[in-house]
Amino acid sequence: FDDTKKGVVEFRNVSFKYPDADEEILKNISFTAKPGETTAFIGSTGSGKSTLINLIPRFFDATEGEIIVDGVNIKNVEQHELRKRIGYVPQKGILFTGTIASNLRYGNPDATDDEIRDAAEIAQAMEFISTKPDGFATEISQGGTNVSGGQKQRLSIARAIAKNPEIYIFDDSFSALDLKTDAALRKALKPKTKDATVLIVAQRISTILHAEQIIVLNEGEIVGKGTHKEL
Ligand code: ATP
To answer: Which residues form the ABC transporter domain (predicted)?
Structure first.
């Protein structure tokens, strides 16, 4: 990895087909996401937003073109080295059996209690963690049935924050949150991610209004790129 390009994510003419599928889901995608900036992806259902960001942690590999992270082609990097740099929050929060604290430490086992608390606070999760008699030591039941969808989502976001990554990927991660929590979370997240590269798939326009770069996808192609004002 090239430290002078820390956090830079670049797509160069990337196309993608799911294995065994005929149809190209992404066509000739090129853009650069920079540290200190938010790059937001919008577009209708099925336009390929999730597929695009899933290529960054290498859940799948691009069929054509190159994806460059920190100056290197991610095809030539060990998955674990790549994923260490990325805080990825899927559409639906995922919890593991164990305590809330161990769930938040999942991506960063060395996170201190203060770091865990700070992450939970930013993710607006303290509000419900503090109402539990066991707080951070609360056991998550199998499948996470003792937490709501929105709480799960906030814990998933807190987990990514506790990792302190150089690249954050939020796949429509704020949609399970009410507007007030969404706004509070984004406000708290801003100082925390000020030097990081933030990639975000969003449905709500309020989530992406302040993005430095908005990328509009349609049927797997980029049909617009710019700030909210420009578009
Ligand atoms: P949404 O806003 O509904 O989440 P999206 O823009 O994120 O949509 P994708 O989820 O990337 O779109 O889906 C793009 C296309 O890829 C769709 O046609 C979808 O059916 C297809 N697709 C998604 N995942 C897979 C998969 N694992 N295997 C095959 N096809 C898939």
So the answer is: 9-231
